[in-house]
Amino acid sequence: MRRGSPFLNSVLLLIIVSASRFVPAMGDESAARARTLKQAVIPFLKKHCADCHGADSQEAGIAVHKLLSVEQFLEERRIWERVHRMIQVGAMPPSDHEPQPTEAQRAEVAAWMYEELYNFDCELIDNPGRSTVQRLNRTEYNNTIQDLFGIDITPADKFPADDVGEGFDNIGDVLTLPPLLMEKYLAAAEEVAAAVVDTRDYSKPLSVTGDFRSGDEDGKRSIGRFRVLASRGEVAHEFDVTATGEYEVIVLVGADQAGPEKAKFALKLGDRSLQEFDVQKNRRPEEFRHKLKLDAARQTLAVAFLNDFYDPKGKDGTDRNLYVGSITLHGPLGKNIPKRSDVHNRVVTAVPTKGVNVPDAAARVLRPLLNRAFRRDVTEEKLQRYVGLVSSAVTDNGDSYEAGISLAIQAMLVAPEFLFRLEQDPAHNESERSLDDFEIATRLSYFLWSSMPDDTLLQLAREKTLHRPDVLREQVSRMLQHDKAEALVQNFAAQWLNLRNLDDVSPNTDVFKSFDDDLKRDMRRETELLFRTVMKEDRSVEELLSADFTYVNERLARHYGIAGITSDQFERVSLAGTNRSGVLTHASILTLTSNPGRTSPVKRGKWIMENIFGETAPPPPPGVPELEATAKVSPDLSLREQLAKHREDPGCASCHKVMDPLGLGLENFNAIGQWRDTDDGRKIDASGSLPSGETFDGPLQLIEIVRNRREKFFRTLSGKMLTYAIGRGLEYYDKCTIDECMMLLESRDHRFSAIVEGIVLSDPFLKRSRPVEKPNTP
């Protein structure tokens, strides 16, 4: 762990305060920082930035005139990080601003800001942060239900879409609980309970009327509730017979009588005829009954028309037809032993008997279920609340025991302990508290699996050993190799890399005729499989940028021009000798960062800035024309020339001088990620230079420059994963955790598990700070 014990921190603070020779140094340092702020930084901002970001105008929400103290750099970190980045890369002040600072002045201010923003002493900062309580998002809800009961059901698909914050849909601040969602929770609880517990009362026969299934064209026409059999067809229904015993089949049949005999039909069990019947009445429905023994299984009962008659030369009444209104199965009759579903038998592990009353049986069923659903061992008092629901249903309402269990499960599924990942706050006299082992188990499982803790995690929490670093390391290793770790691919990687946005991308199929939804799915799967490989094989995360292999099936291989793949299954292939390497050359990324009919160097450059380098591009200033407007004015210019003209506007140049070269380096890939050498007859120019002076020619050289900045990529990936793991946006003090991840990465050859382990062992993951007390307002 980064920090020592509270006692050790207190001793350290005492030494700092009491060491007389150290105090003047600290005082001198603070004075020097304040002096630089007053003499160099504030005058710089006032002279070069205040026109657009001062008292009269605050473009992009930035007001530099409010800077008064060095403490503001951490308190208002996000604002000053943007200011620092724009000054550092030379994007601000804009090129048309006069006067322009010298390079020395720019470097001095940028260096000073960097020191204030990033080079503070982590040993003197003790704040693990505090996440807003997180409710289960839709994915987590579905996964939790499936793992809790062992059923394949996705009730959360009917919930409203989750809001996204900080790039992810598991951020506590945006996971609100509107009334509509509460209604959906109640409906989902009923749906799940019905799928889990068989509440039918087998002490009495049941009557089930089935919807018809027809095996041929005849019988598909209806008149009201009746199916029409005009020739020798049949109508049928499959019944789930849950108990072996004697049953009665009741069919409602009518007929158009014609010809020399009555209409006839056969009642069939599967392909076997049980009994034939004559219909006596004309156009008046009759009930026909037949008793038989059935085994507990899926059974098909059918009505088949046997004697069609039609005289085309006759008058009225010369066409015999059969009408089937219903097939009802009634039973079992007399004593029977019900056959319950596997999930019912797994959940309802005890029933009342002569020696076990309803409360005792319910407690045996509900205790393990509540422990898993609430992700901790419940108290006896809480258990009895749910047992009381079962007892009341049976005693007061006359419901069956199974119906009472179903009611208790419904109550459990709408309880805050299930819907929310609750964590206790520190005591009033504490600034922070360490999470208990059950809370850690929950954080860990929803981080890596997007689901509830399994029995192993809960048992370690029960033994109070999960918090130990060695145990956490073992669990991280185990969980990353589990099939459930696919959730980290689908829910972390797919959001970090914006793969989910592919669903909303629709390239122009008049231009790109080979594009369809199947190809779109293949594009996404390629990127997911690369991330999955880096995770499962614990490879260097740098390979996300530089992998010399990828995964393709026949369709995607044809799209890329890779020969030898003839299966719809994905295969691992080498990229040696190609112009592709890592996710930047994946069709998924290239497609979602393009326009429908053409590439977009701006979108591609912006994507690299934000997702690889962790630098958020500010919105365009007001009044700046779109690139499309430039294209309309100068249609004969190439895209590169149009971008250059667009950058002639100083309001555009400040950002585009950073984004455009990154995107232009990928211009050899068209808007759906295929390689090309020309565009509209013009030779592609994929060369460029960055504000840093680095130059490249083509995507592979651009990727090499990106790789040379891998520390920024490692920090971005670590920060994104930390955000996802703790469910909140990062604060300045979280840099300390990122620093630890960076050191662990360096010592472990940049392997994927190093980031995960660094996060799981960090204070933000294992601790919770006290809520900030807001001052009372009159």
How does the major sheet shape up?
Answer: 7 strands, antiparallel
User: What percentage of residues falls in helices of 4 or more residues?
Assistant: 40-55%
Q: How does the overall form come out from the CA principal axes?
A: globular
Counting H and I runs of at least 4 residues, what is the number of helices? Answer: 30
Q: For the residues shown, what is the average pLDDT?
A: 88
Distance between the termini: 43 Å
* Unreliable sequence segments: 1-26
Give me a quick take on this structure.
With 778 residues, the chain is α+β, with helices and mostly antiparallel strands.
Fold blueprint:
Elements: H1 6-18, H2 22-48, H3 50-53, H4 72-75, H5 77-88, H6 103-118, E1 134-135, H7 138-149, H8 179-196, E2 206-209, E3 213-214, E4 222-223, E5 226-229, E6 234-240, E7 243-256, E8 264-269, E9 272-278, E10 286-294, E11 298-305, E12 309-310, E13 319-338, H9 342-347, H10 358-373, H11 380-395, H12 401-413, H13 416-419, E14 420-421, E15 432-434, H14 437-448, H15 455-462, H16 469-481, H17 486-496, H18 517-536, H19 543-546, E16 549-552, H20 554-560, E17 571-574, H21 587-592, H22 601-612, H23 627-633, H24 639-646, H25 650-664, E18 678-679, E19 682-683, E20 687-689, E21 695-697, H26 699-708, H27 710-726, H28 735-747, H29 752-760, H30 763-766, E22 767-769
Antiparallel strand pairs: 1-14, 2-13, 3-6, 4-5, 5-13, 6-11, 7-10, 7-13, 8-9, 8-11, 12-13, 15-22, 16-17, 18-19, 20-21
Helix pairs in contact: 2-6, 5-6, 8-12, 10-11, 10-12, 11-12, 14-15, 16-29, 17-18, 22-25, 27-28, 27-29, 28-29
Verbal overview:
The protein is of the alpha+beta class and 778 residues long. 43% of the residues lie in helices and 15% in strands. It contains 30 helices and 22 strands. The strands form 7 sheets. Strands 2, 4, 5, 7, 10, 12 and 13 form a 7-stranded antiparallel beta sheet that branches. A hairpin with a 5-residue loop joins strand 20 and strand 21. Helix 8 runs antiparallel to helix 12. The longest helix is centred in the N-terminal third of the chain and has 27 residues. The protein is globular and about 110 Å long. 35% of the residues are buried. The N terminus is likely disordered.
